[in-house]
């Protein structure tokens, strides 16, 4: 029986510098950063910091106006977003304290970095865990030669895979084939492992077949972004290293997301982004099409009006919603990035609802801003005032009937990965000043 997958964030506590030392470094950096401001500006330092925060807020508001306006108003909004922080820097220069503010900001970043590591849990499991398994006897791999700008050919993936005993089918872009049916035919012919060298959308189609037939699934990071491969700890720079799973692999369990009856390995998006990518003009000119459509979409003058229900939470009229197969790690401004786990049995939900410049400025607070809702759920229902809505599923544009139900299939996927692979990132802990002080000034502290 394979072990569950806990990939991202798998650095071990004993591999990091001492927690107490990091806590002391964090506090020392804050004090050292504040001293120059206090010594050279006194009480004015509070005013200067408030001015900096105000400049960032005005800049965020300007960006919101730029996204929701057209023509001259958009140009003026962009100018405001750029000039507001510049004006703050000029003011700092005029009073001769720009250097002190820059030192303060640098030391604040150092303090935050040290605090995150000091407060990180020590009991995170090893990213390399998994059940040792014998090599597959009849592996079957599907390769898309166009994915990732031609990585299949550039890294010689077909040749290397065949040398390891795999049966390989390289897709012909001129003659599209049903990927799922191709995988099912391979199983009927005796394949005991299914693998994909391609994008996340192709991976999801084959992963669904593998899960339904309870055979191992293998990812080769030959796509453009390779989000799923990245969260598995696979090498995105050299996809040929993923082939090590055929000879020296371990097996882990991972979840699969479902949007309607369609499987996704990364996420399903609703709202503004999903509507933009549905436009026929998007492929030819992404930037111009996005800027043309966003004002109406963000101000609810076009597009469907959504209602999202996740557990006891209801998000009314969000402009954008992202439902992910396991939640993205916290700690970065929008809560995006990589996933700490792929086996939590929970969907991640991020909803964005910004109806004013004030709310746009509040987005600087990240997950604490009023315009962003971040939660987890086992099921998410997206309702709309229309019978069908656009949905982006692992980067592919679909149109689905409403209501759209998103679910998760815990541990549905057996994933074959190389024994030796990269550690994935750990979820950053929330900052707890009290606990940080206890770590800094005591020899032992309760975690």
Automatic annotation (TrEMBL):
Q: Which UniProt keywords apply?
A: Kinase, Membrane, Transferase, Transmembrane, Transmembrane helix
Native species of this protein? Actinomadura gamaensis
Regions crossing the membrane: 21-40, 46-65, 72-90, 96-119
Q: Which domain of life is it from?
A: Bacteria
Q: Does the keyword Transcription apply?
A: no
UniProt protein name: Diacylglycerol/lipid kinase family protein
Q: Which residues form the DAGKc domain?
A: 134-263
Q: Which InterPro entries match?
A: ATP-NAD_kinase_N (IPR017438), Diacylglycerol_kinase_cat_dom (IPR001206), Lipid_Phosphate_FormReg (IPR050187), NAD/diacylglycerol_kinase_sf (IPR016064)
What EC number(s) has UniProt assigned to this enzyme? 2.7.1.-
The Swiss-Prot or TrEMBL record annotates one GO molecular function as: kinase activity
Name of one Pfam family that matches: DAGK_cat
Q: Which family does it belong to?
A: Belongs to the diacylglycerol/lipid kinase family.
Cofactors required:
Mg(2+)
Keyword Transmembrane helix among UniProt keywords: yes
